[in-house]
Amino acid sequence: MISQAELDLMVEEHKTSNPFYFEGQRDSALSLDEINRIEIAHGVRFPEAYVHHLTTHGAGEFALGWIYSPDPASRWSLWKDLDGYIPHLRSKAIPISDNGCGDYYCFHIIDEICEDSIVWADHEKDYVFPPSDFENFRDFILNNCLNAA
Fold first, then answer.
1. Per-residue pLDDT tens for 58-79?
2. Per the structure, how many domains does the chain have?
3. Which segments of the chain are extended strands (E)?
């Protein structure tokens, strides 16, 4: 499993070698206080790696992927998809990205805590939660956003 420090280094290397991959639209980074307020308001706790990403890079386009924001006012707000397309999953999963075809990469929620593992929510299979191809959020960033670049 890749550490946060290793992933941060890889991100910086990708920014140096492929700066145009990081010119996409993205929100400003959120503060820990903002994230804590959002967690309290929505009764959920986000994984540490996701929080690190949001406080370091913000949400939105990231290399060749994108990350949803927990900020309801964000253009990239995860609540828009959750409440608009998959409201029946609200207490079960938090979408963090999608494939552009109605399917979502999600954190599974257990006892109001998001697991760091990434599950797949496929619209053709009524959004059941089989494991995705990504072990956790860092693996998602590495293999969906960076290695795709």
1. 999 999 999 999 999 999 999 9
2. 1
3. 60-62, 65-67, 93-98, 104-110, 113-121
